[in-house]
Amino acid sequence: MKLGSITLDVPFFQAALSGYSDQAMRLLALEYGAPLVFSGLMLDKSVLYPDVMRKPLYAVSDQEHPIGGQLLGNDPDTMARAAGRLNEFGYDLIDLNFACPAPKVTQKQRGGFLLTDPKKAIEIIRRVRLAVECPVLVKLRIGFDQSEESLENFWRICEQAVAEGIDGLVIHGRTVSQKYRNRSDWSFIARVKKAFPQMSVVGSGDIFLAEDLVERLAEYDVDGVLVARGAIGNPWFFREARALVAGRDKPAPPSLAEQGRVMIRHFDLILKRYPPAKGIPFFRKFCVYYCRRHPQRKKAQTALITSGNTKEIRSAIKQWYCL
Q1: pLDDT tens across 146-169, in order?
Q2: Which residue in 61, 150, 181, 189 has its CB near the most CB atoms, within 10 A?
Q3: Which of 128, 144, 167 is closest to 156 using CA atoms?
Q4: Burial profile 63-84: b = 16 or more Cβ within 10 angstroms, e = fewer
């Protein structure tokens, strides 16, 4: 899959996951086969402060290329300056977020709200495209709501984005007002690809298994698939997806011991970047997802998220994962 000057050897990559995709998660994803990762969603104004960009959620290490940065904002000038700064900080690709449905975002006229203001969305795209030489993607939902006006706004933004020379459309198959209710409409995403056959179109929504990814590629003729929540606490997703895309059998699920070793590695990567007071609560968020594979899911999860210090957490992982 091509995204401007970047060529991926498989048709999928890891999404920008707000509050999750820091260096630790990204490094594990790359080790297990993700061809491209994104840092957490970034507010354009924050990017302009060097101290913010040194945080583990956003700082780029030499092992992470190619890496993308996803920007959130509503001022064309600030978005353009922020995109330029991301290049300076080592990002290889810029993604403009016109999709986020969180009320705290849309109430400030950012993210998915911009689907109601195509003129401003298009100006942001134009200004960012002129400000950087790296590939630029635009992430959209299929409308703000299900009204005819919203549909017209969506197609207008897509048409102008393509005309401005962006390098890919990333389409989540729900409206902003739907948030994460109902199923993602992949047939609509396929319509986008049919309308812009020359454009790389990446689909998003409800990808929780590697089999889901392969089925969407085969059925809807998109160029790629975005892996979001399905990758949290599950770096094995990328190993499994690589095998299935290549026509091989799906690898055996990780043993309990392998799961435990990866969890400890993830914990150690976090503690290299955060003090324990911040690192432990941050790691607990991942424990909930890791424990979904455990045969005694609820008991293992409770043991891990109630452990009070680094020693107790490691001890609980070793106990519950047979290390």
Answers
A1: 999 999 999 999 999 999 999 999
A2: 189
A3: 144
A4: ebebbbbbbbbbbbebbbbbbb
For residue range 255-289, what is the model confidence (pLDDT) as tens digits?
999 999 999 999 999 999 999 999 999 999 999 99
Give, in order, the Cα–Cα distances in Å from 299 to each of 281, 304, 306, 321.
Answer: 18, 9, 11, 12
Rounded CA-CA distance 242/248 in Å is 9
Q: Write phi, then psi, for 312 (nearest 5 degrees).
A: -65, -40
* Amino acid present at 228: A
Which residue matches tokens 């389409």? 171
Strand residues in the chain grouped as ranges (E) = 2-3, 6-7, 12-14, 37-38, 42-43, 67-72, 93-98, 136-141, 168-172, 201-204, 224-227
Runs of H (alpha helix) within 164-275 = 186-195, 210-220, 236-245, 256-271
Tokens of 12: 């999928």
The burial of 302, by beta-carbon neighbours within 10 Å (0-12 exposed, 13-18 middle, 19 or more buried), is given as middle
Q: Please tell me the distance from the alpha carbon of residue 201 to that of residue 63, in angstroms, as a whole number.
A: 27
The span from the CA of 262 to the CA of 268, in Å, is 10
Q: Which residues of 223-246 are buried (b: 16+ CB within 10 A; e: fewer)?
A: bbbbbbbbbbbbbbbbbbbbbbbe
CA separation for the pair 235, 219 (Å, rounded): 25
Domain parsing of the chain, residue ranges: 2-245, 256-320
- Whole-angstrom Cα Rg for the chain: 20
Q: What is the CATH number of domain 2-245?
A: 3.20.20.70
Q: Which residues are catalytic?
A: 100
Nearest to residue 268, comparing CAs of 279, 281, 255?
279
Q: pTM here?
A: 0.95
